[in-house]
Amino acid sequence: MSLKIAVIGCGSIAKNRHLPEYAANEHAAITAVCDIVQERAEEAAATYQAKAYTDYKELLKQDDIDAVSVCLPNYLHAPVSVDALNAGKHVLCEKPMATSAEEADQMIEAANQSGKKLMIGHNQRFVSSHQKAKDLIASGAIGKVYSFRTTFGHGGPEGWSADGKESWFFKKDEAFIGAMGDLGVHKADLIRYVLQDEFAEVGAFVETSAKEDADVDDNATLILKSEKGTIGTLAASWAYTAKEDNSTVIYGEKATLRLEDDPTYSLVAQYANGETVKYELGGIQSNDEGGQTTTHVIDHFIESIQNDTTPLIDGEEGKKSLAIILGALESVETKRIYSLEK
């Protein structure tokens, strides 16, 4: 049985990820698309033989839609997801899931009430090197984890967003946060997943230094301490002008793991006894040419609906990753280390 899919928001993430990945999935059929820019909606509709809408509320009234992807500016993630869940649709929402803990709670509540799936698009969990590192750590192969550094940076959304320099990404009232929401929240989710640990405290420095017309952060560095006592740094930036950096290094008692840090080997394990193991796994998804295959996010979402299983990144998981970023903002405001609530 094919699930009938609607994509709300036809910007770059929809165009490059959601729409082609739904089209490639034999269990999904794109039946409707929506964008407030009519030409964008019509272009996507023509490409995928779908019906075009400019008002998402009209789209949600349709009975023949099973699930929706919410690919909108950050400030619309929660309200549109809640409306879609209340309309009885499963929801895959782009990250960050919301702009506050209250909004995240509303989304979780709507999913619980409707009995529909809510998944947040944190695609880093599906990267082979990240999954392999998680398994190595869980097996005890690297011993106690002492520290880590994780970073995600590129030249900024103007090279990637549908609106370029005019993009909502740079506007605080629509984006809420900048590089931290665009990239940092991915790494917050990743490091929680790979270490299988939650974070207790966060301190942060956040700057707008690279983008002249932006009123959101474009460089952020977080210091994190986990419940198990592991400390590390998380950097998010729109100022890595020469080349994207999407790497993570985990320092353990018996080994150091380098993830997406070597151009050939997506995971390199350097053991304290002098041994080095190089894993040539599938590369990470990037927005560069040739980087597009599948992020596995769409396939996992479809599977969780068909098999009635909980998505790997449900609302609760999305909220915990968002909490780290919200905590970083609190740390910046108060110039203190912020304790994350249990």
From TrEMBL:
Residues 130-258 form the GFO/IDH/MocA-like oxidoreductase domain. It comes from the Bacteria. Keywords: Oxidoreductase. This is Gfo/Idh/MocA family protein. The keyword Transferase does not apply. InterPro entries: Gfo/Idh/MocA-like_OxRdtase_N, Gfo/Idh/MocA_oxidrdct_glycsds, GFO_IDH_MocA-like_dom, Glc-Fru_OxRdtase_bac, NAD(P)-bd_dom_sf. Residues 3-122 form the Gfo/Idh/MocA-like oxidoreductase N-terminal domain. It holds the Pfam family GFO_IDH_MocA_C3.
